[in-house]
Amino acid sequence: MTPYRPEFETALRVFARASKLLIAQGYEAPILVGGAAVEIFTASAIATGDFDVVTARQGAFEAALRSLGFVKPSGPGMATRGWVHPDLMLSFEVVSTRLLDGLADRKRVLVLDFGTEGTASIISVEDMIADRMGQFASGTAPEMRGQARAMLVLHTDIDRAYLAHRIIEETAGDYRIEDVEGDPL
């Protein structure tokens, strides 16, 4: 039993199976970022509708998704760039080939073990908080500071020095860790 909503856990397990297929081919495991990572770090308190994935092997990852029953919607009214599974309520999309443009420390990636189904690699909570603050700093996503704060409140064991560095880096020096800790906007 996990703290996640059932459909999200099912999607995580499917992601683990897709990851296992890539690893079996000798590739690095794809990494979940974005809303799916936020949902993991908030135990589904903040829910997502998609899985954003980082992998340098997009073709191999998409082939793995196809082998697991995913389809790429097409036709009128289908604007998604991602892949959907008929039984899941979430889509999967490769959003980058490098984890936060190479700024995130891959050694900090969290790995969730789903036994024989495989493992799911997740961006670190510190990097996810910093990413959300970077989006907040852009001025186009004011809700991202709240997501960053929720993750910070729930994860008291974070590497504060690394997080402080990453927030400064992602926000071009405009924000600090204290800006996440302060009262929500």
Automatic annotation (TrEMBL):
Domain of life: Bacteria
Name assigned to this protein: Nucleotidyltransferase family protein
Species assigned in the record: Sphingomonas ginsenosidivorax
